[in-house]
Amino acid sequence: MSESDTVLSALEDGVLRLMLNRPDKLNAFNEEMHRALRAGFERAHSDSDVRAVLLTGAGRGFSAGQDLGDRDPRKGGTPDLGHTIETFYNPLLRLIRSLEKPVVCAVNGVAAGAGANIAFACDITLAARSARFIQAFAKIGLVPDSGGTWSLPRLIGEARAKALALTAEPLDAETAANWGLIWRAVDDAALMEQATALSARLAAGPTKGFGMTKRAIQAAATNSLDEQLNLERDLQREAGRSADYAEGVAAFLEKRKPEFKGR
Ligand code: T3D
């Protein structure tokens, strides 16, 4: 368990499970939850026993984004939202994207505002069939954050990105999967079992190779083909020197299951 109850954290079989835990607020982010989630991802970076992360939410929602109770304009003053973005959301997004270990996201219910875009930033996102994704920013006069204006057009194209962002219409999980925003929509009752099995499988895999694969795919967003080919050469050179590569090939030749150590 982490120090804060707002994110429940547990490490099992190489999987660090991080569960957003403010269910009465649909896991909306207050400062404590921001800090606890960041601590979870910082641990994932530094702890070699962590070989995959599973992010999910407690209760009927995944996350409703920023806690608007902390933004009540009737209490006076004008908030500096750029400060929150700089202090919390941007570092979180960078931690998720730069983690050289797989991040699985199990969207157990509604994902709105930053909650939706955090789910889209994870490496493999599964969603319960009943879940919905909402770019709720438009309803309160804000701009999509947490990488939404970057990930949405890349994943689904400008036309769909703009329509989702400007209308804030909910998108069901099945359509999100068909459009390529997430990997798969699964039956509600099967979500956690499938997400846990997938995370465990990834945690038992060649972590170094996974990390470099993630880095390469992300780099393709800004690289030319030549730059990408050179990157693949360099990463393959590094992967070829890993203990997991030697184990993978030996296991193939010996017709047995490989035992990857993540090195
Ligand atoms: O501010 C900054 O730092 C900048 C960063 C911004 C990032 C953002 O994420 S901005 C977007 C903020 N989020 C929203 O605008 C979404 C607000 N919520 C909703 O629109 C709806 O709750 C949902 C569509 C997500 C779900 O609707 P529904 O009908 O299933 O549930 P509900 O009844 O609206 O919510 C259940 C409870 O959760 C309710 O509390 P109550 O009445 O039972 O005591 C509701 O107030 C609370 N809740 C839901 N979302 C938030 C929230 N409380 C605080 N903040 C929320 N974002």
Tally of structural domains: 2
What is the total tally of β strands? 10
CATH architecture of the largest domain: Alpha-Beta Complex
Task: Identify low-pLDDT runs.
Answer: none
Protein described:
The chain is an alpha/beta fold. The chain has two domains: 3-203, Alpha-Beta Complex (2-enoyl-CoA Hydratase, Chain A, domain 1), CATH 3.90.226.10; 207-253, Lyase 2-enoyl-coa Hydratase, Chain  A, domain 2. The chain contains ten helices and ten strands. It has helices at 31-46, 81-98, 114-121, 148-156, 158-167, 173-179, 191-203, 207-219, 225-240, 243-253, and strands spanning 7-12, 15-20, 52-57, 61-63, 103-107, 110-112, 124-128, 132-134, 171-172, 184-186. The strands form two sheets. A six-stranded mixed sheet has the order 1-2-3-5-7-10, with helices on both faces. Strands 4-6-8-9 form a four-stranded mixed sheet. A hairpin with a 2-residue loop joins strand 1 and strand 2 (15-20). Helix 4 packs across helix 5 and helix 8 (207-219) runs antiparallel to helix 9. The two termini are 27 Å apart. The mean pLDDT is 97. Bound molecules: ligand T3D. Ligand T3D binds at residues 25-26, 28, 64-69, 71, 81, 84, 110, 112-114, 134, 136-137, 139-140, 142, 145.
Strands, helices and their partners?
Blueprint: E1 7-12, E2 15-20, H1 31-46, E3 52-57, E4 61-63, H2 81-98, E5 103-107, E6 110-112, H3 114-121, E7 124-128, E8 132-134, H4 148-156, H5 158-167, E9 171-172, H6 173-179, E10 184-186, H7 191-203, H8 207-219, H9 225-240, H10 243-253
Parallel strand pairs: 2-3, 3-5, 4-6, 5-7, 6-8, 7-10
Antiparallel strand pairs: 1-2, 8-9
Helix pairs in contact: 1-2, 4-5, 8-9
The structure holds ligand T3D.
Residues 25-26, 28, 64-69, 71, 81, 84, 110, 112-114, 134, 136-137, 139-140, 142, 145 line the site of ligand T3D.
